[in-house]
Amino acid sequence: MQKRIIIIGAGFAGMYAALSAARLREAQGVAPEKLQIALVAPEPTLTIRPRLYEAKPETLGAPLGEVLAAVDVVYVQGRAEKIDTRARSVKIAPAAGRPHVLGYDRLVLASGSELFRPEIPGLSEFAFSVDTLADAIALDRHLQGLAVRPTSEARNTVVVAGGGFTGIEVATEMPARLRTILGEEARPRVVIVERNAAIARDMGEAPRPVIEKALRDLGIETQMGVGVSGVDRGGVMLSDGRRIESSTVIWAAGMRAAPLAAQIPAEHDNSGRLIVDRELRVPGVPGVFATGDAAKAASDDLGNFALMSCQHATRMGAFAGNNAAAELLGVRPVAYRQEAYVTCLDLGAAGAVFTRGWDRKVELVGDAAKKLKHEINTVWIYPPRADRAAALAAAEPVRVTDL
């Protein structure tokens, strides 16, 4: 009788979960007819989400159909709507036609995360983001359209709400993007609005001087200790009562697990992530694993936890897929570990900053860091080749992860 693993999501975690499950299936000499691995997603495409702050976002999707087919993973087109953990089934709504239900023996939830959008007046109507491919394309079209508008302070002003990793990368890319669109003679104004007292709070103190210098060199303003209280077609209101006239407001303040995680009857953290054990199982919910941005997992024995990043999602996905298959194949699962941790923050024309370790020790800055960031963005985070051996090898869960 055929058994089935369902993986929900075609992001970094979902892709590597599928490849890793297929890797173990082949290593154990089990035919796909005995153990089906099915990946459910609206499109067989990996969105290169870490690059959505860049221009030409329509180019930032990597097709997965060939690589999945190369390792005998079944692609199921549709959106997972309902998870029934008692019946071990998933209701799937296709793009066309009636929803259908697919049963599972093991489920890997890799549904990812989404931008947290609080109920601020006008935010949903007038603010842009780079959360999804569609969002980034909408922003890019809006920016291109600024060229036909009359010159004004508002037209030339971009407000970025959020001074974290995404907000900084969006903001530091903006001056060059706007000059390309509006002309080299344009004098764009970019303002970061951040509720915290310090920029890049989560990155710690070590890289902050590099980041602050880059912002100064690029002429980017920062408004610290204030938030956005309202957005309209002409600008933003700040929590201290001031107003900034702007035709472009970009929201980049906070992430939450995608809503599907809430359907799993288990403990969640404040970001909506499922609390998982060291093998990425969801305790108390038999047959269910969570991974990537849908899971809160300890990455080492020192009290560090995986972050909502592709760096962690790729490895977490490989462990989750392996362990889901391991349970069905009678193989010992592998505890998730990812002790190495690095960051590489793009700073636009000012270069980049690369840090290593949870204390964010700065190792590279400027052009050297920018070169590494380019390699990460254009090579390392893309899917493996649609070659069976290469794809399976890439999904080995236990391997050196240091750069």
From TrEMBL:
Source organism superkingdom:
Bacteria
Q: Where is the FAD/NAD(P)-binding domain?
A: 4-317
- An example of a Pfam family matching this protein is Pyr_redox_2
Q: Does the keyword Oxidoreductase apply?
A: yes
UniProt entry keywords in alphabetical sequence:
FAD, Flavoprotein, Oxidoreductase
Required co-factor(s) are: FAD
Keyword Flavoprotein in annotation:
yes
The cross-references to PANTHER family, in alphabetical order and at most eight, read: 64 KDA MITOCHONDRIAL NADH DEHYDROGENASE (EUROFUNG), APOPTOSIS-INDUCING FACTOR 1
What family name appears in the similarity comment? Belongs to the NADH dehydrogenase family.
Q: What is this protein called?
A: FAD-dependent oxidoreductase
Q: Which organism is it from?
A: Siccirubricoccus soli
